[in-house]
Amino acid sequence: MHEVVRRVVDPFLAEVDAALGATYTAILFGSAARGDYVPGRSDVNLMLIVERADPAELSRLRPAFARWRKTVPELPLIISHDEWLHGVDVFPIEICDLRAAHRVLRGPDLVAQVKPRPADLRRALEKEFRGKLLRLRQRYAAEGAQDLGAWAGGTVGAIVLFFRCLLVLAGGSAPADAGDVIQAAGGLVGAALLGTALLLAGCGYNRMQSLDERVNQAQGQIQTQLQRRADLIPNLVNTVKGVTKQEDTVFISIANARARLSGAVQAGNVQEMAAANDQLSTGLGRLLAISENYPQLRSSENFKQLQDQLEGTENRIAVARTDYNAAVGEYNAYIRRFPYNLTAKIFGLDKPRPYFAAEAGAKEVPKVQF
Q1: How far, in Å, CA of 236 to CA of 270, rounded?
Q2: By CB distance 3.0 to 4.6 Å, which of 25, 36, 75, 308 could disulfide with 107?
Q3: Is 91 in the same domain as 180?
Q4: Residues 162 and 215 in one domain
């Protein structure tokens, strides 16, 4: 049990013990029972099953409830023993959820003694799903799709509960973990219904589109700078060729690397762009090293100007690469996170975007000191 939950529940139950003795059952359910309680976001869900729940019994519980309210706004549920045993048809969804994950803190495990009838559970699930669909239509008619995700974001828990009960209705088990529930439900109802439910839950589709577009824009900046670099190469090579006549091997390797880079830029292949850029950096490093042996080049204003432009472009490539990799990292992390990974899978957005990874030693801009 989470320490925050324990600090709320333990003193409360101590007062209930003093008021009712050993005549009741206390059941913890929801996130606190599943082990995924998040302080500040999750509720502490507790239910007391008492003998009669009459005014006299409720009056004895008043001090304990007053203490609880000082720390937690959502008060524990109170139900009589007879109501619990004979109300299975009234609360089939809630009982289904309780059976999936609960902790008995006092008394016998009364949850294990009740099980919803399939017919009752089916009617309750249909009513729940149709109700959400009606509210979704109302919202869409009033405000359109722009604010739909924000409104629906709070229904993720209800959708998980819906599928947990659907699994029980189909004769299967109901996992406590939300990710396991959705994966099992996907195999049961198919991608179409699962996708509809996830859209009702506002599971990050618009956010994925925004992050994907950010990656595309960052990739465009890399392509622009790589093309600029490729465009500078012929002038630089021709300047060096005018002085050096015996370096054909270097010139050929640079020409091949430049052609490869231009092809990768046109194709938009990030991994090929990174590899071709590294190959071109190697050739340029050899070219600039050769230039040190020729005093004519050191004094050439045209060569110096071209080198300055090349180094400036290299710096811009480094900045663009950093921005691109940051955008890719954010996108890839988002599509792996539950429940957004389920939305990503349904809409074909689950493939991670590739990083622009430079080989070892290729991140430094080639420099020549004159």
Answers
A1: 25
A2: 25
A3: no
A4: no
pLDDT digits (tens, 9 = 90+) for 69-128: 988 888 999 999 999 988 888 888 889 888 888 999 999 999 988 988 888 888 888 888
Query: Does one domain contain both 210 and 342?
Result: yes
Torsion of CA 29, 31, 37, 42, to 10 degrees: -100
Contact 304, 370 (CB under 8 A): yes
Does one domain contain both 241 and 272? yes
Interatomic CA distance for residues 32 and 9, integer angstroms: 11
**15 and 93 housed in the same domain:** yes
289-304 pLDDT per residue, tens: 777 777 776 667 777 7
HSE of 358, CA atoms in CB hemisphere, 13 A:
21
Q: Are residues 228 and 321 in the same domain?
A: yes
CA angle 66, 72, 76 (to 5 degrees): 70
What 3-state DSSP class applies to 240?
helix
Assess if residue 28 is contained within a domain.
yes
Domain of 41 in residue numbering reads as 3-110
Q: Do residues 145 and 99 share a domain?
A: no
Do 288 and 365 form a contact (C-beta atoms < 8 A)?
Answer: no
Torsion of CA 319, 323, 326, 328, to 10 degrees: -120
Q: How far is CA 30 from each of CA 6, 44, 76, 160, 176, rounded to the nearest angstrom? A: 14, 8, 12, 12, 9
Using the predicted structure, report yes or no on whether residue 363 has a pLDDT greater than 50: no
With H, G, I as helix, E, B as strand and everything else as coil, classify residue 106: strand
